[in-house]
Design goal:
The longest helix is centred in the last third of the chain and has 9 residues. The mean pLDDT is about 90. The radius of gyration is 32 Å and the shape is elongated. The chain is built from three helices and six strands; from the N terminus they run H-E-E-H-E-E-E-H-E.
Length: about 150
């Protein structure tokens, strides 16, 4: 391949519209702008969102909601997901992600364990947060719940 033979893909480059070049071109006289009016003028037209003087929709609708930039989002795992894990296993964020036990969360603040489900094996669970019922169930099964 030679650099002087490289061409753009077919249809990637279009020739510019040649306006005002005679009636036979189809774009002569008014150059495709019609007769008079706002759209025919230089710099004509209205800004995006303008509704002809009527109050625009973005001002008619009320403001709603709030995004807390300090919010912490955790990767959530229930005890029911840990039911099939062998006894004596250390369950932490890396273990949960490697085994696909929870859904990935963007910019997460760690692992949070919730108490939905039964746990029979004694596990060592290391997480950022535990619900009260999860901590109780882990300790009842003979395991330990370590808060990081």
């Amino acid at each position: 391949m030679r650099i002087d033979t490289i061409q753009p893909a077919i249809g990637a480059n279009r020739p510019a519209k040649r306006l005002g070049r005679g009636i036979g071109s189809g774009l002569g006289k008014t150059s495709g702008k019609g007769h008079k009016g706002q759209w025919a003028r230089s710099g004509g037209g209205v800004r995006p969102g303008f509704e002809g003087g009527q109050t625009p929709i973005h001002r008619r609708l009320p403001k709603r909601g709030f995004n807390n930039k300090f919010r912490k989002e955790y990767v959530i795992v229930n005890l029911s997901a840990l039911a099939g894990v062998a006894a004596g296993t250390v369950v932490d964020y890396d273990f949960v992600m490697a085994n696909g036990l929870a859904k990935q969360v963007k910019d997460n603040a760690g692992l949070k364990v919730l108490g939905s489900g039964e746990l029979t094996a004694a596990l060592t669970v290391k997480a950022a947060k535990f619900s009260a019922s999860a901590k109780e169930a882990i300790e009842k099964a003979g395991g330990t719940a370590e808060t990081l």
